[in-house]
Amino acid sequence: MSGLVRAAGCVLWRRSPDGGPEICLVHRPRYDDWSFPKGKLKRGETALEAALREVLEETGHRCVPGAALPTARYTANGRPKEVSYWAAEAADGAFEPNDEVDRLEWLSPDSAGDRLTRPGDRVQLHAFLRTLPTDA
Predict the structure, then answer these.
(1) Is the confidence at residue 98, as pLDDT, over 60?
(2) What does the pLDDT look like over 16-60, one tens digit per residue?
(3) Is residue 42 exposed (0-12), middle (13-18) or buried (19+ Cβ within 10 Å)?
(4) CA 64 to CA 68: how far, in whole Å?
(5) Alpha carbon of 98 to those of 6, 34, 113: distances in Å?
(6) pTM higher than 0.90 for the full model?
(7) Residue 76: partners with Cβ closer than 8 Å, 6 or more residues away
(8) Rounded to an integer, what distance in angstroms lies between the CA atom of residue 36 and that of residue 112?
(9) Which residues of 89-124 are buried (b: 16+ CB within 10 A; e: fewer)?
(10) Best exposed site among 39, 119, 121, 122 by fewest CB in 10 Å?
(11) Rounded Cα gap, residues 37 and 57, in angstroms
């Protein structure tokens, strides 16, 4: 496909104090949107490498990748875009606002679903929730 933009990201999560999952969403002021951390692949980079790099750059967190999630396919700025996703549990790190991401929030799955700007991103959220053990 000519002009395909390849990107990758993660549904970054952590355990809340009550044991349930909290989902990380980032706000990008350039687009005024809430989304999962993601970004374009660099030359020679695999999709998973890009996803982990983008999570670190956008959230300040290292993470442990888990299950592959459905790939998002849509048109952005008139070009086809394909975003590969993984579930990823947050390890260590701390968020610091930057030019690309000015806010980060940890939300319950329901709140994250409501906050996502692009309705199509709920596909990855729901797929992530199906990967959790039933006691989560």
Answers:
(1) yes
(2) 999 999 999 999 999 999 999 999 999 999 999 999 999 999 999
(3) exposed
(4) 12
(5) 23, 15, 24
(6) yes
(7) 5
(8) 10
(9) bbeeeebeeeeebeebebbebeebbebbeeeebeeb
(10) 119
(11) 9
Task: Assess whether pLDDT exceeds 80 at residue 135.
Answer: no
**In the structure encoding, which two tokens stand for residue 109, read together?**
């799955």
Cα–Cα distance for residue pair 55/1, rounded to 1 Å: 27
User: Is beta strand 79-93 parallel, antiparallel or unpaired with respect to 5-15?
Assistant: parallel
Superfamily of domain 5-115: Nucleoside Triphosphate Pyrophosphohydrolase (3.90.79.10)
Is residue 3 within 8 Å of 119, Cβ to Cβ?
no
Residue 136 predicted with pLDDT over 80? no
Q: In this predicted model, what pLDDT tens digit does every residue of 64-85 receive, in sequence order?
A: 999 999 999 999 889 999 999 9
Q: Under the phi-then-psi rule, with left for phi > 0, alpha for psi from -120 to 50, and beta for the rest, what region is 120?
A: alpha
